[in-house]
Amino acid sequence: MTSQPTGLVAILRGVTPDEAVAVAEAIFDAGFDAVEVPYNSPDPLESIRRIRAAGPADRRVGAGTVLSPDDVRRAADAGASLIVSPNTRPDVVAETVRLGLESYPGAATPTEAFTALDAGARAIKLFPSSAVGIDGMRAWASVLPAGTALVPVGGVAAGNLADWAHAGAAGAGLGTSLYGPGDTPDVVGTRAAEIVRIWSAATA
């Protein structure tokens, strides 16, 4: 495992509870900081519960595609410590912050990013990052408050990860390029290790 935080989040869309722990362990062992189970996966809250129970208390386990304050509360009850959304809803951010969880609201414009920050977020999920682009992220960074973590998601893969890192991304969320339903832990772990290697080299 890497000795320094990477800021990398594995998006396990489609993972089932029976495979969630083994896949998550392979990803954490490779050096990822966090895994996220989206709500549109089979029984996502049970997967979150199992991943949380299998690891240390400070392990970062997230719920994704979180669209309402009720979703936030249910994820928190299951043991999620970070809340990831594809959109910016101030009430979702506010409830996340109220519960002491990390908020990763999705934003595609600077206006949405500022709205998320006003609601209490300290990190912004650039989504889809392929639309915002690296030049767009740099422009956002020039006007957002210092210390705002910008995390591209959507189209990030091993082939362009270093470019995002060099541009100042605080981390990245990786989904289909890392995990697909039915992928074995060994396969996912190998991919994760290569992604961590690329990120670590680019941020050294």
Automatic annotation (TrEMBL):
<dbReference type="InterPro" id="IPR013785">
    <property type="entry name" value="Aldolase_TIM"/>
</dbReference>
<dbReference type="GO" id="GO:0016829">
    <property type="term" value="F:lyase activity"/>
</dbReference>
<comment type="similarity">
    <text>Belongs to the KHG/KDPG aldolase family.</text>
</comment>
<dbReference type="Pfam" id="PF01081">
    <property type="entry name" value="Aldolase"/>
</dbReference>
<keyword id="KW-0456">Lyase</keyword>
<dbReference type="InterPro" id="IPR000887">
    <property type="entry name" value="Aldlse_KDPG_KHG"/>
</dbReference>
<dbReference type="InterPro" id="IPR031338">
    <property type="entry name" value="KDPG/KHG_AS_2"/>
</dbReference>
<comment type="pathway">
    <text>Carbohydrate acid metabolism.</text>
</comment>
<keyword id="KW-0119">Carbohydrate metabolism</keyword>
<protein>
    <submittedName>
        <fullName>2-dehydro-3-deoxy-6-phosphogalactonate aldolase</fullName>
    </submittedName>
</protein>
<comment type="subunit">
    <text>Homotrimer.</text>
</comment>
